[in-house]
Amino acid sequence: METVNALGRRKAAVARVYVNEGAGQIMINNRPLDVYFSSSLLQFVVKQPLTKLGVEAKYDIKVNLEGGGIKGQAEALRLAIARALVKINPEDKPALKAEGFMTRDAREVERKKPGQPKARKHFQFSKR
Hints:
There is one protein chain. The protein has one domain (4-99): Ribosomal Protein S5, domain 2. It has four helices and five strands. It has helices at residues 33-36, 40-53, 70-88, 93-99; strands spanning 4-10, 13-21, 26-28, 31-32, 59-66. Strands 1-2-5-3-4 form a five-stranded mixed sheet.
């Protein structure tokens, strides 16, 4: 099997994933998963597609992650891994789609408008 690559995005985070056959090692920006994501909850989020298909120890994954915060990065990585697994085996798509791992969460931060303190908040109106 040659290297399969995929892209995942969430908020401002972008995850580029390269999947090879291997022993289940996940390297993020040249650091192991448990070092990059110290929270066990975020590690769980990243591994969800692999666990769902039962292939945690079958693939080595190399990741380039940039932008956003750690939660957005973890969810971007989950989407990228799910897309890569579907490229490897298209029959897995319905199982991943049912769990919501194939859906790009398109919610982005709304821009701040001029003359306002935030995107939707307004300064207090005074008639006199």
